[in-house]
Design a protein that fits this description.
Number of strands: 15
Largest sheet: 9 strands, mixed
Number of helices: 14
CATH superfamily of the largest domain: HUPs
CATH class of the largest domain: Alpha Beta
Helix content: 25-40%
Radius of gyration: 27 Å
CATH architecture of the largest domain: 3-Layer(aba) Sandwich
Bound molecules: adenosine-5'-triphosphate, magnesium ion
Distance between the termini: 20 Å
């Protein structure tokens, strides 16, 4: 079927007046950015809605990108016609005849925002409905539970006819809620945590700690690929690659073995907070989930959290692994995350890490390290990359 437009709906009701225009502007920007690979496409904002004019760009390709833009509640493919009764009837018939699988029942719902149009809504419902009935064989009208609701929107600029809604990913447009630093490992959890953070409108910058040359080039490529997949949802993403090798080596030489992971995590937190300050972020986001692994106990979270003042957002904290994996599949990070390349944490795993560390002991053991200097040095040697989604995308089904 050939659609000319896409009608986009967003969650305006939840918005306070003064935030609305800020929200809308950000959404238009994000949408433009998401659709910039389609040069023919135009975006128009009308009252409380947005219209994407396809100008011959295939609907499916554009729809796939729209499903990656936060802030969109739903959208519909639309046929536009002139303000002319015969044309409206033809276009409606055309729309309903091409729905696959063919519906058995339908209902016409007209909304006549343009009061200049000579036929009233009820009359239009009737005229369009009977035209469809006369020209099809097995279709019936059902006003209560129709298979298809044919929506006819009569406006000043024309008539828009649509027959179904596709859910968007919801949330808020990225950019309306400030910035957070995401601690991005190569695992399954942190990309999901990052996606959920973005979903609330937060601009995310990713921080990854590596132990090159103990960790491989493939491990690095994997994280870049994860960042790239995440960037489809935000347009682009800044990735900070922090060398942790020296710090890990010193921890191993100077601190008790069962505390190495705890102290390493505290160092990561401190470095991430410094990078947050440098980049204007007001929170840290992690993929921690309570009691998932030995290191994610309440005591461990507390001991690690002590070293920073910024709020730490943990979107996965109460989720089961299965729920997290389901989101990872949906957003497209799962297959990359399960590639076996080790990250810095898997390389220096002690035989029996402490499960109930205390901040006091961690502090005592850290006296063997030049904490401030090490943090500063790691920040200075951090490499920055801007990641964009431009790499060819795998086909994926609309969800
Ligand atoms: P993930 O699946 O995200 O790797 P995990 O289940 O392996 O998480 P941990 O290894 O305990 O859990 O890590 C907890 C969190 O610490 C991660 O979700 C991530 O936010 C952060 N983290 C761990 N390793 C790194 C790393 N190398 N670089 C940046 N952040 C990291
Ligand atoms: Mg991990």
């Amino acid at each position: 079927m050939k659609f000319d437009h896409i009608l986009i709906r967003y969650g305006e009701l939840a918005l306070k007046k003064k935030n609305r225009s800020f929200f809308e502007k950000q959404l238009v920007n994000n949408l433009k950015n998401a659709l910039k690979m389609f040069p023919q496409v135009e975006i128009h904002k009308t009252y409380g809605r947005m219209h994407v004019v396809l100008n011959d760009t295939p609907f499916e390709e554009v729809a796939q990108r729209i499903q990656q833009v936060f802030g969109i509640v739903s959208f519909s493919p639309v046929i536009k016609t002139d303000l002319d009764l015969e044309k409206i009837k033809e276009a409606s018939l055309n729309m309903i005849s091409q729905i696959d699988p063919a519906p058995k029942t339908f209902k016409v719902e007209t909304n006549r925002a343009n009061k200049q149009f000579p036929h009233k809504s009820m009359e239009l419902n009737h005229l369009i409905g009977s035209h469809i009935l006369r020209n099809t064989q097995d279709l019936k009208v059902d006003v209560h539970e129709p298979d298809v609701k044919l929506r006819v929107d009569v406006r000043t600029e024309g008539v828009f006819i649509s027959s179904y809604d596709i859910p968007g990913i919801g949330g808020l447009p990225v950019g309306v809620s400030g910035k957070a630093m995401l601690m991005l490992s190569g695992g399954i959890d942190s990309p999901v945590a990052g996606w959920l953070t973005m979903k609330r409108g937060v601009t995310v910058e990713a921080v990854h700690f590596h132990s090159y040359p103990f960790t491989s080039q493939q491990a690095r490529d994997k994280v870049i690929e994860l960042a790239r997949i995440m960037s489809r949802y935000s347009g682009r993403l800044k990735l900070h690659l922090v060398p942790l090798t020296e710090i890990q080596t010193l921890i191993r030489q100077r601190c008790p073995e069962d505390y190495t992971i705890t102290i390493m995590r505290r160092m990561m937190m401190r470095i991430t907070e410094k990078l947050a300050e440098k980049n204007g972020a007001l929170a840290i986001s992690t993929g921690e989930s309570l009691a998932q692994v030995a290191s994610q106990t309440m005591e461990s979270m507390n001991t690690i959290n002590r070293v920073v003042r910024l709020p730490v957002i943990r979107p996965l904290v109460t989720m089961d692994k299965l729920e997290i994996m389901e989101i990872a599949r949906k957003i497209g990070t799962y297959e990359t995350s399960i590639q076996p390349y080790e990250d810095c944490c898997t390389i220096f795993v002690p035989k029996s890490p402490v499960t109930r560390p205390t901040p006091e002991k961690a502090e005592k053991f850290e006296q063997a390290l030049e904490v401030e200097e090490l943090v500063q040095d790691a920040v200075e040697r951090t490499e920055v990359m801007w990641i964009t989604p431009e790499e060819p995308e795998d086909e994926f089904d609309l969800f």
